[in-house]
Amino acid sequence: MSFQVVEYRQIGYENRQLAREDFNNDKVDAGDIGAGKRVTVLYELVLKGSKGDVKADSLSYQNEKPKSDSGREPAFLKMRWKTPAGSKSELASLVINTSDQLAAFTDGSVDMRFTVAVAAFGQKLRHNAALDKTSWQTILDWASNAKGRDEHGYRHEFVGMVRTAKNFN
Predict the structure, then answer these.
(1) pTM of the entire predicted model
(2) CA distance 108 to 60
């Protein structure tokens, strides 16, 4: 299966604060994450041949051919980071290969599927048009089927919140 990302958006950051030209500028605050912290970032991807409406930057694969013709290199991820005592950032980049693509949503890890349910819930509450065809029941099913190990009951509590939202909508 071959795919190419033509548009993307970082979920929860529809009003992106960082201008493209500031990506390499260490003097511009880019939403720093403290040392020792972990975050999960989700992107909505629009694949070649799909109708998208995300305003995309002109980046690696926007107007040029992939770096290889194999069809196995659909996207390229770039991130900048600094050591806690550092003043100059370093670039980390990663080629996303088609071999990284899952055949089905259900093939994703429990944590990833639950994370998607949480993100979808937030977007649905904000009346994001991208979720118009995603029902409250679908989000409830995603969350219920991906509770996994729930030592403190937070996932169970989240499923209850989705159920409540479903009943009011």
Answers:
(1) 0.71
(2) 26
